[in-house]
Fold:
Amino acid sequence: MKNPITKRQKELLNVIYTFIKNTGYPPTFEEMKEKINVVSNQSILDLLARLEQGRLIKKQDNAARGIVIKPKGYEILNKPSLVAEVGATSAGQLMEAVEITGEWHAVSKEISKFKDDVYILKVSGDSMINAGINDGDSILVQKKKEFVTGDIVVAQTPEGTTVKRFISEDKPPYVYLKPENPKYKNILFTEDMTLEGKVIAILKNGNWQPIKNSLQNHFLAGKLSYQPSAQKHKNNLEFPKDLVNKIVCGDTIAIMNKIPNGAVDLVITSPPYNLKNSTGNGMKDGRGGKWANAALQKGYSNYNDCMPHEEYVKWQRDCLAEMLRIIPENGAIFYNHKWRVQAGLLQDRQDIVSGFPVRQIIIWKRKGGLNFNAGYFLPTYEVIYLIAKPKFKLATKANAHGDVWEFTQEMSNKHPAAFPVNLIDRIVSATDAKIVLDPFMGSGTTAISAINFKRNYIGIDLSPEYCEMAQKRIKQHQSQSKLL
Structure:
C-alpha cells in the first residue's frame, strides 16, 4: 500500500500536534520553520497544502494560527485526537457565554469519529448532580441540529449558557429544560433560546464515560415539532382525514411525505428567506440601531432563519421536490422568494429552482414600507416562481392579469412576514384547484384565501405559536363569513 504521506509532511504534522497539545494553539510559520529546519515560508505553505489535500489537516483562513488536525491525521500519527476545551458553563445559576481557554484534551477513537463537531466544557454548579454531572466536571458536547426528549443539552438563553435535560411532551409546559436536582426549577423553553449541542460523555477519573439519554419525541434546534392546540404531527398521519382543512405543526418535509402522489392541486408558499445569514446588511444578530426592533431581527418564532447557504439551498430543493411530487399533471406551485446581493453576487435563487419546471416569474411589488439604511434604495419587490406541471392551465380570464402585481404588504398581522390576503386571493382564484397546500403556512393567510373561494386547504408550520395564530385567524374568519 502506497504511503499517503512523506517523511517531511509527517514531521510537520507531528510538530502541529505537539504544539496544540502543549500550548493549546497551532504553531506559527516561524515556529514551524524552526522545528523542521527550513528557511522559507513557501516551503511551509507547500507542505501544509499537501497535508490539506490529503485530508490530514484543515486550514481556517479567517483564524489566527488556523490549523485543525483531521481524524485521518491523528490516524497517521497513531495518536489520540485532541478536542478543545472552550470554557465553563453552568449547571446551576445561568452564567455568561463560554470563552476559549486554549486548553486541549486527548480523547479516544470512539469520540474522534465526531470529527470537528465536539468540544469540551467545564461545568460550574450542582443542578445536574442526579445525572452524574458534578461541579467542576468536564463534559464532551457534540454540536447537533436534532435533539430528542431526555437529551442532556447545552442551551443558550438570554441570560447565558446552561446544561440541563431537554424535555418535550404534549402537556403543559410542553417544552422545558429540566435540572437533575430538586432544589432547582424547570426553565420554560422560549423562542429566544437555542440548543447548542448534546452532552455525550463526561470525564471521570481520567476516563470518558458515555451519558445515557432517552430517545423519544424529536426536536430540531431552533424549531419546535409539536404544539398545544394545532393538529399534532404524529408518525401515523393519514391523508386526507388528518391533513385536509387542518393546520399541522411539524417539519414540513416529514409531513408532506404523508401526502400521496398528485393529491394536492395547488401549492402556494413563501419559505423563510435565510435573512440572518448575511454578508452585508441583512438582519444580523447584534446590529442594534433602527433594526433592533424589526420583526425579523430575531428570526421567526422557533426558527432563527440562519443556515449555511449550501445547507439552506439543499433544504429548499428537498422541499420543492416534495411539493412537485404531490401535485398532479395539471397542478402548480407558486413559490415566493426574495432576490438579494451577497458578497457582491446576485442570489436570484437559480441554485434553488434550477431543474424544476419554472414556467414564469411574477413580480410582487409591495406598496409602502420603511427603509432604515441610507446606503440602499427601499426594497419593494419579491419574486413568485410559477412552477407548473405540463397540463396546468389558468382559470378562465385569469390570463388577463399581467406579471407585475401590486399589493400592499400585510401591516396588521403579528407574523413578521405575512402574505396579504389579496395576493393569495388572486392566485387561488386564477386556478381550479380543489386542495391548496401551504407548507410554510405562518399565520394562515393561504387557508383564509382557500376558504374565500370554497377550496380545501392544508397548512403546515414548524412554530406552535404560528399554528395557534393560524387557527385563531381561521376560526375568526369563518365566524365573520357566516354573518355576511
